[in-house]
From TrEMBL:
It comes from Acetobacterium woodii (strain ATCC 29683 / DSM 1030 / JCM 2381 / KCTC 1655 / WB1). GO terms for cellular component: HslUV protease complex. One of its GO terms (molecular function) is ATP binding. InterPro entries: AAA+_ATPase (IPR003593), ATP-dep_Clp_protease_ClpX (IPR050052), ATPase_AAA_core (IPR003959), Clp_ATPase_C (IPR019489), HslU (IPR004491), P-loop_NTPase (IPR027417). Residues 360-454 form the Clp ATPase C-terminal domain. It comes from the Bacteria. Belongs to the ClpX chaperone family. HslU subfamily. Residues 151-182 are annotated as: Disordered. One of its GO terms (biological process) is proteolysis involved in protein catabolic process. SMART domains: AAA, ClpB_D2-small. Residues 169-182 have a biased composition (Basic and acidic residues). This is ATP-dependent protease, ATP-binding subunit HslU. Signal peptide: none annotated. It holds the Pfam family AAA.
Amino acid sequence: MKELTPKKIVTELNRYIIGQQAAKKAVAVALRNRYRRSLLPADLIDEFTPKNIILIGPTGVGKTEIARRMAKLIKAPFIKVEATKFTEVGYVGRDVESMVRDLVSTSIRNVQQEKMKEVYVEAEKNANKIILDVLVPSKKIKETLKTPFDIFMKPTPPSPPTQNELAGDTEKEQSKKEKREALSKELEAGALEDQMIEIEVDDDGSKTIGIMQGMNSDSMSFNMNDILGDFMPQKKKKKNVKISEARKILINQEAQKLIDMDQVNELGIQDAEQNGIIFIDEIDKIIGNGNNQGPDVSREGVQRDILPIVEGSTINTKYGPIKTDYILFIGAGAFHVSKIADMIPELQGRFPISVQLDSLTEEDFIEILTHTENSVIKQYQELIRTEDIDLIFEDEAIKYIAKIAYLQNEEDENIGARRLHTVMEKLLEEISFYASDYEQSEFTIDLNYAERIFHIADKHDNYQKYLL
């Protein structure tokens, strides 16, 4: 974070999101303030809490993408939740505290993956050894099945091996050793990747037994292994897979054995507390219009349930308690019917920053198609390239596509940048269908082709025939 100044954060966000500079600046300052807080004296750190943000704007203008990209930029635990999924305590639905539990689970999973990367080399060696043992089983003492009665009987000592048996065993072991060395070299060279082998894998289906009490399954379901530990050994099942796939499975299993999960849980909770980001979408849907009857009562109840979490409280999770005081909350909504002033005053105070995002213009669509790193044009070009065809878009065709998307948003429901996917699907429908049959190595999308698909000049008022 030392090098990630607010200006650099905005520059990084510009690679994926067009426009919306006010929103980008707001989240950039919020991220930088977290770094600044970490440099404060110990007696001041606890006094500084994040300034939560509400992003206002129609769907598809970049609200979620801004939050997701900034979390990825600083590798912070991030979850997105829909406010409409929550209900007031006492009603059937998701408990608002589940958003914090989901954040903790995400954070712990992130830490676990990082720790597994650190032991990858050792885990890979162990996995290759297991694969080699499957291909050339090592010598093991075979035990006969004993009955309870046999346990109390004096065991019969085995007969000493003869000289011929000893010589035969030595010869077999030498042959097996040479075979293992030869196969080991072939494994390292990748010559056996497609060979099928049978391995033992963890039976995840039997690992977790959910127990629910009351109405809230999120808070009451838990893993029986967490309680019984070694009294419930991990069940195994056999699976036939290629060596290439077996290696991935075994590396994952071996890496999990090499890491300290107690430390992972501790670091995960700490990361969620200090750096976690919770994005609450459609927050305007839990704001009433001032009535005290009907659904507005329940909506206000959800706000009051969210309030202590945003204010700062301690939530119990199966990994341990977590404080929410320093989690950054970002709310988002269109606010077509309600407005922030309709939110209960206490919750308004916990979202001191509100930013208005602009609707996308025709020029914005052109920028999205041509200057973002994850542009829909690049996505379709890579998709069609799998058929050995280069898809080329001329500038005039790109402008025409942007115009179609913009006009459709104006006349129908405004779904923002998502409209581009609808337009592109229609534009490339025939190409995608026949791509495997084409003999040429490239296909050019020009203005004539785009006009032929949409007929905008002749059927200006009939877009819905071609678009959703």
